[in-house]
Every structure is written in C-alpha cells, then in structure tokens.
Write a structure and sequence with these properties.
Blueprint lengths: L3 H5 L2 H9 L6 H13 L11 H12 L3 E5 L5 H9 L5 E5 L6 H11 L5 E4 L3 H4 L7 E6 L6 H8 L3 E10 L10 H6 L1 H15 L3 E6 L5 E6 L2 H5 L2
Parallel strand pairs: 1-2, 1-4, 2-3, 4-5
Antiparallel strand pairs: 5-7, 6-7
Helix pairs in contact: 4-5
Length: 227
C-alpha cells in the first residue's frame, strides 16, 4: 500500500528529509534489511527516519514505563528501549508468534533484551491485568482497535503521558469521504482522529510524516486544574 508521504510528498522532498536526519544506526539498518528480505509486509517497519522521531520523543519524556503495541521485527522496540532512562522498562506486545525468534534475536543483538518485557498475544487481553502505569505509549498494531486500546489505557496513563500513534492519515484516505465510506480502516481512523481532537483530557496534533503520526499528550482535567 502507498503511504501518505508516497501519495502526497514528491520523492525529492522525502529524500531531502531523510538525508537531513541523523544517519541510521548500523544495527537498526541490519534489522531493516532483514525485514525487507524476509517478511511479506516490510512496509510495516518503522524504519529511518521515523525511528529518530521516536527516539527524540521518548528521550524527551524519560518514561519510567513505556508501552508498545505492535513490535513486528523489533526496529521500534530497539529504538524505544535504547531511549529509556537507565531505570526505565518497555512493555511490548506482538501477536504474531512467527516473529518470536527474530524479535528475540534482534533485541539480544541490540543489548536491550533485559529492558523489554514481551507479551505474545493480543494486548487487550493482558493490559487490564498488568500492574503498570505508562508515561509513553507507541501504538502500531490493528488500526481499527486504536480507539478501544486508548480507552482501555486511559486509566493506566500517568498525567503527562505521551501517546504516539502510527498510520493516522492512512494513505491520505481519511481526507476523502468516498474513501472513508469504501474503506472501514479509513473510517475507523477518521473517527479516532475526531475523537482525540475533541477529547478534554488530550492535547493532540497529527504530523504529516510518513503515513501520519499522531501525538496526544495526556493532561487529565483534574490534574490540569491543580496546576
């Protein structure tokens, strides 16, 4: 599928933005190469320079506990684990059991396996049972589940938590009513975008980056009123 950037940004603009970002880490480049050579949907890879954006955001927040839903082959997982403070921990979910060996290998090669707790099932089944509250969340899994995931997470977010949500422009199809009517995923994402934009407990912006990246800062009303 074409990403939003492929549809709306000329190739020379994309090349310029990539070339003017911090160069890709060699180990992450190796993960990206493996993913392109050995998976059917390498487009699901976070990749470069998106990984730099994730790193910057995570380092800025300095989360004690971060959450990732959708690890895939481990590119974003490595980025986030490396960006944690020394005492930080990453909880990640990946429902595709076929990726278990490669994800474990990539985390070990990156030297971050000790900072990551991986669950190999649907996040919705386990999240309510976990004893964690989160400072940083990266959502990159089933798009039609995004809103339900966030509703489930809200009681488990610390004030000031940052949500980073991938694919929120969905190839640009969210812009066009006929495409939203034809494609259920586009309709679900548009619903999510409208809901977050008007939610009183979030400050939200969508970046026209790659396939659309939403940043949503959790500032619950009760907490905001005390500041």
């Amino acid at each position: 599928m074409p990403l939003f950037a492929d549809r709306y940004l000329p190739p020379f603009v994309q090349s310029y933005l990539k070339e003017r970002a911090t160069p890709e880490d060699p180990l992450l480049a190796k993960v990206a190469q493996w993913t392109h050579e050995n998976t059917d949907l390498p487009i699901m890879l976070t990749g470069h320079p998106y990984g730099i954006l994730l790193e910057i955001l995570c380092r800025a927040v300095r989360p004690q506990v971060a959450l990732e839903i959708g690890a895939f082959t481990g590119y974003s997982t490595i980025v986030l684990a490396r960006a944690l403070p020394p005492e930080g921990r990453l909880i990640t979910f990946e429902k595709n059991q076929a990726l278990k060996e490669v994800l474990t290998r990539h985390l070990t090669e990156a030297g971050v396996a000790h900072k990551v707790l991986v669950f190999w099932e649907e996040a919705e089944r386990i999240l309510p049972e976990l004893p964690y509250h989160y400072d940083f969340v990266f959502l990159d899994s089933t798009k039609q589940q995004y809103r339900q995931d966030i509703e489930l997470l809200i009681p488990r977010l610390n004030p000031g938590a940052l949500l980073v949500i991938d694919n929120t422009l969905w190839e640009g199809s969210v812009f066009h009513s006929e495409e939203r009517e034809r494609e259920p995923v586009a309709a679900s994402i548009d619903d999510l975008n409208q809901w977050l934009a008007t939610h009183p407990d979030f400050r939200t912006v969508i970046l026209p980056f790659r396939d659309g990246v939403t940043l949503a800062l959790y500032l619950p009303r009760q907490s905001a009123n005390t500041q």
